[in-house]
Write a structure and sequence with these properties.
Elements (H helix, E strand, L loop, with lengths): L6 E3 L2 E3 L3 E3 L14 H12 L4 E8 L19 H13 L3 E7 L13 E2 L15 E2 L2 H21 L3 E6 L4 H6 L14 H16 L8 E6 L10 H9 L7 E5 L16 H11 L3 E4 L5 H9 L5 E3 L2 H5 L3 H8 L16
Parallel strand pairs: 3-4, 3-12, 4-5, 5-8, 6-7, 8-9, 9-10, 10-11, 11-12
Antiparallel strand pairs: 1-2
């Protein structure tokens, strides 16, 4: 079955094509790795996932979604990340980290929160009013992404993923719904995509060319006047020199909820893969091996991410293989369950 075939890109070789995507756990006191993370991610590595991408990890304190989100803005945070990568590697999986800045969706304690424009995410009072970033602040955040990528390298991660989706800072720059600037970082399509391009180039100065760089995107805003998949194709085309794999999601730049249904984002991954000629990860309410096989065998995506399904069933990859008579090495400690 295609799901259990290896996937190779640059110096990364995955034993299968099942990915655990980043999902915020809000369980990092002082924004550092805790025992929970070893148990949480370790269970999915033990359960057979080929690649685990850990939750959105802030490049600056004011870039956190909450006070209990992971961070990589300080060298002192490297040690905990190193222990985590060694743990996951020892259990047979590869591991990536998603680097993020929340922008106007910062829910952490911060004196000031920043955004492309001084426009609040919602009118429910949940978030502070953001301050429009000046060029110096944009440069500071760009270099923070690069510095965090350098720390990720020192910590032993196999993949860095730039978070350009779900309404966070990079996504805020991309969408005309949140970017109303009148300078070189706004005005038109070229201006709105500039920040992402600068971040990708900066990250590549600290993340080696031989190691894969992923990009998470929101292909649709679901609001009139917002981003569409066709427009996102043009954006991805501008960063394929730096980016090796595109992780395709949707929504988040406004409170409007996506029209969800099983596999609802797979067509977005298919379009990005086909038109940008870049490997993609499909994600979004994918709950069965049949759905995974359909996406992979029809070349709609190269990898498939299971979020909630892996929360419910950490051993999904091994259990589904066994149901179909596919011999995979189970953890020695658990083999007697099938004797």
């Amino acid at each position: 079955m295609k799901a259990y075939e290896p996937f190779h890109i640059k110096d990364l070789e995955l034993k299968n094509r099942i990915v655990m995507p980043p999902m915020c756990m809000y369980s990092a006191p002082s924004s550092r790795v805790a025992h929970f993370h070893h148990l949480h991610y370790g269970a999915r590595a033990l359960g057979g996932a080929g690649l685990i991408i850990i939750e959105a990890t802030a490049v600056l304190p004011e870039g956190r979604l909450s006070d209990n989100c992971l961070g990589l803005w300080d060298d002192e945070q490297i040690a905990g990340m190193t222990e985590l990568t060694r743990h996951i590697h020892s259990l047979g999986a590869k591991i990536g980290v998603q680097l993020n800045h929340a922008g106007r969706k910062c829910g952490a304690a911060a004196e000031t929160i920043y955004a492309p424009s001084a426009v609040n995410y919602s009118d429910d009072g949940k978030y502070k009013d953001p301050v429009e970033m000046n060029p110096d602040e944009i440069a500071r955040v760009t270099q923070a992404f690069a510095a965090a990528a350098g720390r990720a390298l020192r910590a032993g991660f196999d993949v860095v993923e730039i978070h350009g989706a779900h309404g966070y800072l990079i996504n805020q720059f991309l969408s005309p719904l949140s970017n109303r600037r009148r300078d070189g970082y706004g005005v038109n399509f070229e201006g709105r995509s500039r920040f992402l391009q600068e971040v990708a180039r900066a990250v590549r100065t600290r993340w080696p060319e031989e190691k894969p760089l992923f990009l998470r995107i929101s292909a649709e805003d679901y609001v009139e006047g917002g981003m569409t998949t066709g427009q996102m194709v043009r954006i991805v085309d501008r960063v394929t020199k730096e980016v090796d794999v595109v992780h395709v999601s949707s929504g988040g730049v406004t409170p409007v909820a996506p029209p969800v249904h099983p596999g609802y984002q797979i067509p977005f991954a298919e379009q990005i893969k086909r038109e940008c000629e870049v490997p993609t990860i499909a994600v979004g309410l994918i709950t069965s091996l049949d759905m995974i096989e359909e996406a992979l065998c029809n070349q709609r995506a190269d990898l498939v991410a299971l979020g909630r399904e892996l929360l419910r069933n950490p051993f999904f990859p091994l259990n589904e293989a066994r149901k179909r008579g596919i011999e995979l090495p189970w953890p020695e400690q658990y083999r007697r369950a099938f004797s």
